[in-house]
Amino acid sequence: MVILMKVLVSGKGGCGKSTISAMLGKYLAGKGYRVLIIDADESNPGLYRMLGLPKVKTLAEHLGGKKRAKILMAAEGKGELDEELFNWTLDDIPGEILAKKGNLAVLTIGKIEEAEEGCACPYGFLARKLLEGITLKDGEIIIVDTEAGIEHFGRGIDKYVDVVIDVAEPSAESIELSKKIAALSESL
């Protein structure tokens, strides 16, 4: 079973990205794969609930909060990020940030919690660095549930995945966005 893959689920808001991510994760875990679902949607709070899992610390909280993520992001921008962030395997991920049941685990990057908190760029940075640094073993799969739209392409998150699944609904806006997602995916 030589399968190791990073899959990103993308699409318009409300089209079912989280539902597809959860269903795909449960299915693959049931088939014996070790699955990590990364909740990279900083707005929608309920992916862990869809899977019947408890709420745990986010990756951002584990690192010291959004401010710490901003510091790391700024250091990378200046070429001063010495540390290899998230040089991990699935076994190396701290337990306090994993909601687990059997072969299935969820890791949440971070959530917008307060009015006027600012942009979600630090969370995109953390998602990108996690996908860049994590190493999979045979039989392990990562599924990334993204926020609505295409901002994750601008943040470079998609650069570190093997497959992009575009979820669409039967509307002109959704089809137009699907075309854009296909073009952006091909450009990586």
Automatic annotation (TrEMBL):
Protein name as it appears in the record: Carbon monoxide dehydrogenase accessory nickel-insertion protein
A Pfam cross-reference name: CbiA
Biological-process GO terms, alphabetical: negative regulation of cell division
Species of origin: Thermococcus guaymasensis
Molecular function in Gene Ontology: ATP binding; ATP hydrolysis activity
Transmembrane segments: none
SUPFAM superfamilies: P-loop containing nucleoside triphosphate hydrolases
One Gene Ontology term, aspect cellular component: cytoplasmic side of plasma membrane
Domain CobQ/CobB/MinD/ParA nucleotide binding as annotated: residue spans: 7-169
